[in-house]
């Protein structure tokens, strides 16, 4: 392993939509592992110590407006990504959680889904399934009606594609899969997603920005941060408030306006008894 290998790996993760914070955690883990390898005499030096991970930057995601979110959904109508995009916008699921979702995780009758696993691609090892990264990431999500309806249509369409594929179909019970039933590769999905953005005249965003958009739209509607935290699977409410602090000023203005409206009648009556 060389420093170039590690730098290229970090560059690939950035292209896949991973944040600098996540890559910094990867770097910390790799550096500790190689420290142990040096102590055990397995490698001569820790090359990770010679690499600087991407710098952590301030929150720079593109948050879709309500109009932009509606336009993206309208543009995706009838495409293979329609249900996936609706689910991403309405639930804030991470890419790995979406691609790892199986039909046994979804209860369309009750309108809920369960996040039980995630999947990521690791070079020559392919798609690797793992447990969610934290206990809070394993969660139950109540679905919006638009998401339930989209998944019902998606299920029927997938049944038809499965019958048409016949012998080439590999049953993995995945909600979102390729034409042969296998995992939808990130690069394939990425290309389809970017095509939809161009078609809809939308900003060149990442899929992860749909997660940020979901959270920001919910907070802007007045949904309690605790509910948003549980929906996103954040380990603590402080994480949610730190990441989405840009939404808080508008919420404070709305709160002050509500307080004014609540007390306005009383305020107008102040001093009248003295006249």
TrEMBL record:
- What name does the UniProt record give this protein? Integrase
Tell me the superkingdom of the source: Bacteria
Q: Which InterPro entries match?
A: CB, DNA_brk_join_enz, Integrase-like_cat_sf, Integrase_catalytic, Integrase_recombinase_N, Tyrosine_recombinase_XerCD
* Species this chain originates from: Thermosporothrix hazakensis
Tell me which UniProt keywords the record has, alphabetically: DNA recombination, DNA-binding
Q: Where is the Core-binding (CB) domain?
A: 1-38
**GO MF:** DNA binding
Q: Which residues form the Tyr recombinase domain?
A: 59-257
